[in-house]
């Protein structure tokens, strides 16, 4: 797919926001359907809730309104379609995965079963115009990395488990750089419904001047470093991070350095690894010149749930905090996400049940 890079992002979509009464009714209905019990009006986001919709999560039967189309920043400036229009292939070996992922032409690559990368920590290079998708819940990449080189664009990675590149006893992994997914100065990438566990070093690194990225409905578990964004003096990256589970992770949940726009909503952070570290165990960090907006997320048993450098901006609205400590920092105006795209915002009270059930690989995706 050829992307024509626009000079400016599109303006806001027309439409009205529901009033307080309608918002509270929507919250109550969704919370009740999830079996979450009563809620206090103070726990509901009164000025940032859209209608959950008739197919929002109900008592274990209906899924949230996700589609096979990228949303958030990955949907802008031409959108992200991956290998759509290319051949569909099913792979079961590292050799075939590497062959099709690095090809010049578009491919939809279905990963069936577990692929164990050799040597340990091996990179699988992913070229432009690719969709890599696990078949049901069985698709796995073990002890390997998906690597997107500078200039790569239009990539979708969905429904995979990426795990076990951790080197026992090497908690910081500074000398290995075995990431789960690493991208460097890319554009238009959608990372959706994956599970990351025991990776050395970052589970998902969105590096340098990457643009138009969405990270949605993933499970980030059992790790030191989760999502690192930046390592650049330029302020270009636009990233949406929504409906993700962060459980048993220590830092970079995410850490966003010099992002033009970082929009985080409906994420669930809980059960941090190494909470005894008073500095480097934390949730969300707006760093450098980043403009970050956090909406309707849920923080439970989290140290430093959200923090910002004095040079950065952070707006937080509608989130729920249970047993949190340390830094809770918000200042500046940041930006208004609805000036760029529409999105469905679930009430914070519903987030734990919603995210635990519907994040990570799903049986009905990729089949």
TrEMBL record:
Residues 87-304 form the Pectate lyase domain. It is found in: Secreted. Keywords: Carbohydrate metabolism, Lyase, Polysaccharide degradation, Secreted, Signal. GO terms for biological process: polysaccharide catabolic process. GO terms for molecular function: pectate lyase activity. Transmembrane segments: none annotated. The keyword Secreted applies. InterPro entries: Pec_lyase, Pectin_lyas_fold, Pectin_lyase_fold/virulence, PEL. Coiled coil: none annotated. GO terms for cellular component: extracellular region. Residues 1-44 form the signal peptide. Gene3D superfamilies: Single-stranded right-handed beta-helix, Pectin lyase-like (2.160.20.10). Its main location: secreted. Belongs to the polysaccharide lyase 1 family. PANTHER family: PECTATE LYASE 18-RELATED (PTHR31683), PECTATE LYASE 21-RELATED (PTHR31683:SF18). This is Pectate lyase.
């Amino acid at each position: 797919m050829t992307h024509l890079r626009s000079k400016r992002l599109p303006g806001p979509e027309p439409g009205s926001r529901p009033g307080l009464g309608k918002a509270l009714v929507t919250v109550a209905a969704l919370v009740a359907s999830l079996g979450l019990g009563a809620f206090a009006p103070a726990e509901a986001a009164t000025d940032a809730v859209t209608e959950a919709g008739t197919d929002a999560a109900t008592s274990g039967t209906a899924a949230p309104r996700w589609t096979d189309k990228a949303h958030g920043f990955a949907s802008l400036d031409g959108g992200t379609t991956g290998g759509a229009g290319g051949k569909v292939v099913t792979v079961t070996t590292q050799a075939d995965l590497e062959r099709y992922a690095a090809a010049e032409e578009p491919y939809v690559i279905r990963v069936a079963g577990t692929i164990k990368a050799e040597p340990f920590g091996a990179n699988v290079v992913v070229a432009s115009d690719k969709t890599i998708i696990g078949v049901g819940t069985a698709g796995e990449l073990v002890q390997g990395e998906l690597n997107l080189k500078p200039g790569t664009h239009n990539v979708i990675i969905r429904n995979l488990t990426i795990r076990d590149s951790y080197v026992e006893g090497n908690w910081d992994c500074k000398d290995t750089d075995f990431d789960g997914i690493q991208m460097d100065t890319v554009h238009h990438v959608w990372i959706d419904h994956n599970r990351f566990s025991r990776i050395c070093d970052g589970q998902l690194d969105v590096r340098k001047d990457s643009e138009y990225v969405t990270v949605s409905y993933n499970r980030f578990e059992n790790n030191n470093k989760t999502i690192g964004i930046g390592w650049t003096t330029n302020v270009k990256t636009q990233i949406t991070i929504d409906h993700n589970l962060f459980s048993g992770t220590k830092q970079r949940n995410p850490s966003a350095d010099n992002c033009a726009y970082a929009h985080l909503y409906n994420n669930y952070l809980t059960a941090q690894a190494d909470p005894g570290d008073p500095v480097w165990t934390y949730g969300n960090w707006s760093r450098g010149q980043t403009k970050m907006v956090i909406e309707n997320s849920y923080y439970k048993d989290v140290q430093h749930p959200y923090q910002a450098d004095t040079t950065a901006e952070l707006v937080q609205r509608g989130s729920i905090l249970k047993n949190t400590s340390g830094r809770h920092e918000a200042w500046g105006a940041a930006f208004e996400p609805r000036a760029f795209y529409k999105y469905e915002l679930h009430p914070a009270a519903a987030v734990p049940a919603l995210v635990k059930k519907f994040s990570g690989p799903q049986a009905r995706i990729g089949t």
